[in-house]
């Protein structure tokens, strides 16, 4: 157990360093190539993705607790399935509403300028779809965390971060 804790701490520190370096490279590149207005719009629309994380309802934290106590059992399998079903029932209507009200969200609430409309719409829709996978994937992260494999989730987070910020830099260039 102590070795898993050490692995989790080390991988968490590595994740923080890599994320910081990527952000420090990507943000100035974004601002230089696309301008302050486009970066501000990107940041604002990226926040829309954070709002969808409220759909988690704290289920993953509860799942970690119960799975840790129960170990591998039929009850654990049921808890995982119920968590996935509840999240799906919460996420799908929010995502559908996001698509139905995308015009109002982008034009009225976020005041997207007309010359950035196409980029903003593409980013907004992509964020809505990707949030479904991110939020449902949190259940699998909870399962790994409950097994004491935090270092695995940290390493997967590093891969996600590199892909996320790396893709942004590739698209910019």
What does this molecule look like?
It is built from seven helices and no strands. The longest helix is centred in the first third of the chain and has 33 residues, at 2-34. The chain starts with a helix and ends with a helix. The radius of gyration is 19 Å and the shape is flat. The chain is mainly alpha-helical.
Topology:
Blueprint: H1 2-34, H2 36-52, H3 59-70, H4 74-100, H5 102-109, H6 117-146, H7 150-172
Helix pairs in contact: 1-2, 1-7, 2-6, 3-4, 3-6, 4-6
Rg, rounded, reads 19 Å
| SSE arrangement, N to C | HHHHHHH
* Annotation field: number of helices: 7
Shape: flat
Task: State the gist of this model.
By secondary structure, this protein is mostly helical.
Give keywords.
mainly alpha; single chain; 173 residues; 7 helices; 87% helix
